[in-house]
Amino acid sequence: MSNFNINRYIELNREDWNRETERYQEQHKDNLVGANGLWGPIFGVPRESELQILGDVVGKEALELGCGGGQWSARLAKQGARVIGQDISDNQVEFARHAFNRLEIPENAKLEFVQGNAEDLSEWQNESFDIVFSNFGAVGFVDIERSFKEVGRVLKKGGLFAFSWVNPLFDCFADEGENQLEIVRSYFDRSPMTAESGWKDGVHTLYVQFHHTYGDWQRAINAADLLLTDIIELEPQRERWRESTWSNVPWYKVSMIPSTTIWRARKPKVPLSVIF
Do 67 and 73 touch, CB atoms closer than 8 A? Predict the structure, then answer.
């Protein structure tokens, strides 16, 4: 896909995910069941029922960024939350609506899916949500400073922002082949990571995601006037392990290198500039 403009990453990812939705949901459906409460693409790690990253969600207003097929949004709605799932892909949103349009949820709970860009949450007023979260979703595909500032704006005071993404070290290693413990990328290389997909109709689409260091993530959180409270690096347990449908997370690799990181932050009662 020559002569592409990387600054069009939002548009490029939207087009790629619209074409990828059906194949992705079918190939990974066993991993994407939200009831499992997995925060990443591997099994054998503690789940949300054990970690309690989001805590008690009953009656909470929650926004999921990069909701994909809606499995996690549906999970929270069944627990009594009022949830809106947002995704850049129109087809992912339609998949979610179709999959969960008859879901039985508690009285006063809510489940809604909308198409949108995680860098632009202008659809919602200031301090609209108790929880904003992303489970291996939008945070890897956007400008995190723009997105997190929007998160900070729409969160209520005391509200929770939680997200999981690829551990920054994991990006440095090969994601295919027999030796995925080979270092193939500099930790400090922040250039976009792209992959091209070819389709039967001759169209080629480009998938764009971004690499950030630990410092980059923390600075973006702080710049949004959010206070980082925890970083959880999920360690798989052999006795609970089973292979994932993603080929870049074999046991020999994820047992030695952290693959998934969960970041947890709060919107303080007063701005960080006042606290510090």
Answer: yes
| pLDDT tens digit sequence for 39-92 | 988 889 999 999 999 999 999 999 999 999 999 999 999 999 999 999 999 999
pLDDT digits (tens, 9 = 90+) for 233-276: 999 999 999 888 889 999 999 999 999 999 999 999 777 666 66
**3-state class (DSSP) for residue 80:** coil
Alpha helices (H) in the chain, listed in sequence order: 9-27, 48-51, 71-78, 90-100, 144-154, 214-223, 251-254, 272-275
Using DSSP bridges, classify how beta strands 61-65 and 204-209 pair: parallel, antiparallel or unpaired. unpaired
pLDDT for 272 equals 66
Q: 10 Å Cβ neighbour count for 219?
A: 15
Which residues have CB under 8 Å from 149's CB, separation 6+? 223, 224
User: Checking DSSP bridges between strand 61-65 and strand 129-135, what pairing results, if any?
Assistant: parallel
Cα–Cα distance measured from residue 184 to residue 264, given in angstroms and rounded to the nearest whole number: 29
How many percent of the chain have pLDDT more than 90? 80
With contact defined as beta carbons under 8 Å apart, do 115 and 87 qualify?
A: yes
Note every long-range contact of 50-59, with CB atoms under 8 Å and residues 24 or more positions apart, other chains counting. Answer: 51/232, 51/262, 53/133, 53/162, 53/232, 53/262, 53/264, 54/131, 54/133, 54/160, 54/162, 55/160, 57/81, 57/131, 58/106, 59/108
pTM over 0.70: yes
Measured CA to CA in angstroms, residue 136 lies from 58, 106, 238 at distances of 23, 26, 22
At residue 2, does pLDDT exceed 70?
Answer: no
Beta-carbon count within 10 A of 51 CB: 18
Give the tokens for residue 48.
Answer: 């949300």
- From residue 244, give the alpha-carbon distance in Å to each of 68, 196, 225: 18, 23, 36
Report which of 255, 214, 219 is spatially closest to residue 236, judged by C-alpha positions: 255
